[in-house]
Amino acid sequence: MFSQVADRRRLALPLVFPCFGGLWYLWALGAPERLIAVNAGALALGLAWVVWGRLPSRPEIRLALAALGAGLLFVPLLTGPDVGGVARWFPAGPVTLQSGPLLLPLIAVLAAREGSRGAAVLALAAIALALQPDAAGLAALALASAVLGWHHRNGAFAAVALGAGALATITFHAGTLEPQLYTEGVLAHVAERTATWRALPLAALLFIVPAWNLTMDPQITRAEGYALAALIIGLGGMAAIAPFPFPLIGYGAAPILGFALALGASARRKQIRVGEFVELWDRVG
Fold it and tell me: Can you give the residue range of the structural domain that contains 201?
């Protein structure tokens, strides 16, 4: 049990490194304390889930949960808020959670090993993101689907990748949202306010460290690791070229919680049965 907890702590590294970099960014560049507290609180909740969280291991249940997650992406269209022609958020008390970064990582993990059925779930998610509209989420979903199509040699994932990519292009300039300081333009903000080179380690924490850990950690299947790495690269890449929210290193609880949910749902997690726990307790005693 103790080694299992230690393994889960290691699994949290793709989340911890960029999030701590983001907290440094918020603190060093004078962000309001409320923003720092929101990100820190989301990280604490996320780490608790990564270490102790469980989801059922049966494929049919996991696929049903993925479909439920894709269905939940439609909820903001019905409930709002609608800001500047965009409806992407779940109200959560004092904060709002953007639906794509919150749910996409979990959907991708749960669908990654399911072949054409998983591709169908991702297609449903793409439709919801197009209606919100969320070009960054669509681009990330397209990249993840392309990687899964290559990994599985599956044409259904490739078709989803092409469709989501086309929808991302169509919706790229949709909405009239104003860029928000500490959320969009993070790397440019760091380069502008400090020595330019200091933006490079932050970029490395966002792109290189998570991608490396997600694709190399033996606790995550290759399909899941590739999908999550593609999502973080897609979301971060879109934020680097256009005014979209930076995941993990910028202000926003949704991507922190979303990637934590996905890491905690890794399919290779083993549940400790009561008999195994008793046996372990007897050995310790």
Answer: 2-284
